[in-house]
Amino acid sequence: MFNKDKVKVLSLSMLVTLACAGTANAKVTDKDILNDHLSTDEVVTNGMGLQGQRFSPLSTINTQTIEDIRPVWSFSLGGEKQRGQESQPMIKDGVMYITGSYSRVYAIDAKTGDELWQYEARLPDGIMPCCDVINRGVALYGDLVIFGTLDAKLVALNKDTGKVVWKKKVEDYKAGYSISAAPIVVKGKVITGIAGGEFGVVGKVRAYDAENGKLVWERPTVEGHMGYIYVDGKKIENGISGGAPGQTWPADLWKSGGAAPWLGGTYDPETDSLFFGTGNPAPWNSHLRPGDNYFSSSRLAIDPDTGKIKWHFQTTPHDGWDYDGVNEVISFNYDDQGKTVRAAATADRNGYFYVLNRENGDFIRGFPFVDKITWAEGLDENGRPIYAPANRPGNPADMADGKKGKTVVTAPSFLGGKNWMPMAYSQDTGLFYVPSNEWEMSIWNEPTAYKKGAAYLGAGFTIKSINDDYIGVLKAIDPKTGETVWSYKNYAPLWGGVLATAGNLVFTGNPEGYLMAFDAKTGEMLYKFNTGSGIVGSPVTWEMDGEQYISVLSGWGGAVPLWGGDVAKRVKHLNQGGSVWTFKLPKKYDLASN
Amino acid sequence: MLNRCKYLLILFCACCFNIEARSLDDILESQYIVIAVYDDYAPFSERKGDVATGIDIDIAQKIALSLGVELRLKWMTAGETTDDDLRNHIWKGHYLDRTVADVMLRVPYDRAYSQKRDDVGLLAHELVHMFGPYHTESWQIVFNQERLPDVATMALFQYHKIGAEIDSIPHFYLTSAFRGGLREQTRQYDNLVLAIKGMKDTEVDAVMGLRSQISYLHSQLDTQQYRLAENAFPLIGKQKWDIGMAVKTDYRALGYAVGDVVSALVRNGEMQKIFKKYAAIYEKPTYYQEIE
């Protein structure tokens, strides 16, 4: 399907263009963004292409040459603020743009690792982001570098100076909102979700004019809430999400239904759809809200021009396990008996891998991608889970005696068969490379709990590993059959993104600190390098002056070390950090010298 | 450059507090004490402009006065549970600023809680000493007498709408007890102030919440039209509980000194007066009743 020769020509012609135009001050255009999956000299989208495949056509670094790659520079994020670094680098005109923990942004000379500028958002006192102070990266558009802050603002910086061009409050951080995902830019609009698992939250996806930060539309992700579109500064009603309130919620619980789209989205130009996933419903105890609770723990296809919901697919209806359905939806086409299927794949927190028809959201197939799933016995023909009722956490009404409620052991744990870390799809092998984790949780209603001095009904839980020798498993999965072609087991849980390349390689990092490269077909580990702290970011690759580069952030953190249990024992010795590592082959492998 | 300066400023502010909780001697020597109170939580602690006000503020001032030191308040944004608050404000500090207070108010005084085991069987609160109960808290309903004459039992709320703060025990109770029979009549609000407003706007006929807060909010209403109910709450596991304080476990001497101050306030009736000032129902913890 992919014509490599064409790409080579393309990249050569780009080099020529670059040489003529010089590298100065080229703006990121919608066309650049649309073609990011084909271009090799820049990375201007989170996901290495709007569809989020994280596949690069570059092949200078390949299964033969990988053993010779070496670091060319390392950049320290500095300060005392060394926590989880989940950012994916972006590259434009020889400049790398990254975010760091605590809402910081850096522009770095991609050739030397020299810092060009640094921006630190001023964070208010008293913010309480739920899961570490991470950020997952910037969006680029025009001459702007756009990112979301822990206090729920969108900030656009000038790419050359790092000075603020516009700043927009997306939500009130005092109500428990924050932004950690990288925004996505589609058709000149910067589109973001919102994080905030706290109660009273209603998830929303919003689009802003990328040039000036003006709100274009907003789309609530909970059934019953009105969406809006802004025309000439006027706020116009644009249809209620799901048509009407209260169809899948009891009483008026839809008013505060949760479903925060905290991981951002992907976009498919072929169907002109944005794909956003949504978090779990509120309140957490499912017995309080009988019903499917639309559109919690779901995937939504949204019209990028209007914010209308085109279709939805709910992975965990009536979620009682905190299985956020936020995971990335990756568009890909495959051949089924001569017919091209426009599909989308997503690997859910709940342990199932779904292949959907991305034109209408129809379920094509689904299968487990982790070894142990106990909350459901399987999926029916529509992809709806067949629940195992005994493994649903208990009803608080059953514990009137004030004693600890029934303990239920469920796999996967609430951190998911796969959490935020994005998988990759190789157009060469037709496989998905899924960073998964094998863990389970005990969960019970905890009556001896307090909140702000008020007695409270908490949920007690412990996350436990299922196997002594590993939690993390990188799996190569065939989306047509559900077959696991190979797997790599990792002692600590995997928490970093994956990259696939035409060099028949798959890259990812682990909490132990290694950047690792695998043979995409066999899973043989061909290279590893210890970056000095855990990797929870997503690697990228690009070409500069005819040489292929690989970059990844290193810096242990994220949600895993915040939870106790025996998982914590596996990771508590890991040291924090904050740096970017960049690799390439020595000169002798230059394309130019070929 | 500007950004760097701002960063310095933040650091400077954080320096007003401590990286570590401190001993009584260090507090006396430094001439100030840092007491943690919840932000935006009337009638206990809130900021009105530059002025801190509320029951817990008055108690904190008495503590500082008795020790002869300046009072510095550390305003807490509440975590999901008190466990988070103890970690963030007493023994570890939140990872955003890593500062802690010397004393935290509004901590449950509950043996089952202080002796709670964590998920691997260790004492969950071994780094914290909880002491000095200063009042007993409970649940309370306030209702609109124009809409329902009296609240004899909870059964009434199969037919009358009732509001509660979302994710609170009253909310869980109303949506799950009696086989979910009250669920359809339950309306949830982000906080009790909004729930009371909902009652004034006749969205609901009654509101259930924390007794201190309900009685305080009730005092601001027309007390003829809106009445405090006297019904029981069958099937609620926790009917009453005591509220006290916490220090880091290393600083028991501080705990004893502060405990003595607060104990005197309870015994000499000063505590009741503080609650009365805010129209909050006061109940003395059984801890004091037994030894009297």
Automatic annotation (TrEMBL), chain A:
<feature type="binding site">
    <location>
        <begin position="419"/>
        <end position="420"/>
    </location>
    <ligand>
        <name>pyrroloquinoline quinone</name>
    </ligand>
</feature>
<protein>
    <submittedName>
        <fullName>Methanol/ethanol family PQQ-dependent dehydrogenase</fullName>
    </submittedName>
</protein>
<dbReference type="InterPro" id="IPR018391">
    <property type="entry name" value="PQQ_b-propeller_rpt"/>
</dbReference>
<keyword id="KW-0732">Signal</keyword>
<dbReference type="GO" id="GO:0016020">
    <property type="term" value="C:membrane"/>
</dbReference>
<feature type="binding site">
    <location>
        <position position="322"/>
    </location>
    <ligand>
        <name>Ca(2+)</name>
    </ligand>
</feature>
<keyword id="KW-1015">Disulfide bond</keyword>
<keyword id="KW-0479">Metal-binding</keyword>
<dbReference type="InterPro" id="IPR017512">
    <property type="entry name" value="PQQ_MeOH/EtOH_DH"/>
</dbReference>
<dbReference type="GO" id="GO:0005509">
    <property type="term" value="F:calcium ion binding"/>
</dbReference>
<feature type="domain" description="Pyrrolo-quinoline quinone repeat">
    <location>
        <begin position="493"/>
        <end position="550"/>
    </location>
</feature>
<comment type="similarity">
    <text>Belongs to the bacterial PQQ dehydrogenase family.</text>
</comment>
<dbReference type="InterPro" id="IPR011047">
    <property type="entry name" value="Quinoprotein_ADH-like_sf"/>
</dbReference>
<feature type="active site" description="Proton acceptor">
    <location>
        <position position="322"/>
    </location>
</feature>
<keyword id="KW-0560">Oxidoreductase</keyword>
<keyword id="KW-0634">PQQ</keyword>
<feature type="binding site">
    <location>
        <position position="280"/>
    </location>
    <ligand>
        <name>Ca(2+)</name>
    </ligand>
</feature>
<keyword id="KW-0106">Calcium</keyword>
<feature type="binding site">
    <location>
        <position position="136"/>
    </location>
    <ligand>
        <name>pyrroloquinoline quinone</name>
    </ligand>
</feature>
<dbReference type="GO" id="GO:0016614">
    <property type="term" value="F:oxidoreductase activity, acting on CH-OH group of donors"/>
</dbReference>
<dbReference type="InterPro" id="IPR002372">
    <property type="entry name" value="PQQ_rpt_dom"/>
</dbReference>
<dbReference type="Pfam" id="PF01011">
    <property type="entry name" value="PQQ"/>
</dbReference>
From TrEMBL, chain B:
<keyword id="KW-0732">Signal</keyword>
<dbReference type="GO" id="GO:0030313">
    <property type="term" value="C:cell envelope"/>
</dbReference>
<comment type="similarity">
    <text>Belongs to the bacterial solute-binding protein 3 family.</text>
</comment>
<dbReference type="InterPro" id="IPR018313">
    <property type="entry name" value="SBP_3_CS"/>
</dbReference>
<protein>
    <submittedName>
        <fullName>Transporter substrate-binding domain-containing protein</fullName>
    </submittedName>
</protein>
<feature type="domain" description="Solute-binding protein family 3/N-terminal">
    <location>
        <begin position="32"/>
        <end position="282"/>
    </location>
</feature>
<dbReference type="InterPro" id="IPR001638">
    <property type="entry name" value="Solute-binding_3/MltF_N"/>
</dbReference>
